[in-house]
């Protein structure tokens, strides 16, 4: 979903598991879908963890715990490893997450998130551990993600960290542009350059 991104303050959903791969984010059987409907992929995010084999809710999984809510997912180290399926980013966005915070992302998955208007925020392992501790102590803990200033702040402790982002992707997120939108926005400049460089 194309949404302009500025500053987001939200409670968080904690997933303190390392090496969460794209098959766990969206199982391979859903890759045959002929739709890119956000609800479809969002409904099947972490499908095999959210539901038992008989289709009933797994009440032990964090997304099914009513005390946790928000548009920020706080995940363990090495999030999005495995296959390069963009469907994993579709599922994260379709569920309603705007931000994923981790100490490390698989490169392809990180770019897929950016292309789907989800901001992957890389923090230090110490800061990530502090976030998990704050959320565990109080599920209403809020985190502020400030894209213009590239900072993430744990509102429970007041501690902040700076995060890196590609300048082009930052511009696109802040202006609600995908790659095609960006090219259309700059069509006149491109045409002027072409005329000047014939």
UniProtKB/TrEMBL annotation:
Function: Catalyzes the isomerization between 2-isopropylmalate and 3-isopropylmalate, via the formation of 2-isopropylmaleate.
Annotated family: Belongs to the LeuD family. LeuD type 1 subfamily.
GO molecular function, one term: 3-isopropylmalate dehydratase activity
Pathway: Amino-acid biosynthesis; L-leucine biosynthesis; L-leucine from 3-methyl-2-oxobutanoate: step 2/4
Gene of this entry: leuD
InterPro entries assigned: 3-IsopropMal_deHydase_ssu, Aconitase/3IPM_dehydase_swvl, AconitaseA/IPMdHydase_ssu_swvl, IPMI_Swivel, LeuD
EC primary class: lyase
Pfam families in alphabetical order: Aconitase_C
GO annotations of cellular component type: 3-isopropylmalate dehydratase complex
Superkingdom, natural source: Bacteria
Catalytic reaction equation(s): (2R,3S)-3-isopropylmalate = (2S)-2-isopropylmalate
Keyword Metal-binding: no
Protein name: 3-isopropylmalate dehydratase small subunit
Stretches assigned to the Aconitase A/isopropylmalate dehydratase small subunit swivel domain: 4-125
Keyword Aminoacyl-tRNA synthetase listed: no
Keywords assigned: Amino-acid biosynthesis, Branched-chain amino acid biosynthesis, Leucine biosynthesis, Lyase
One record GO biological process: L-leucine biosynthetic process
Its EC number(s): 4.2.1.33
Record note on quaternary structure: Heterodimer of LeuC and LeuD.
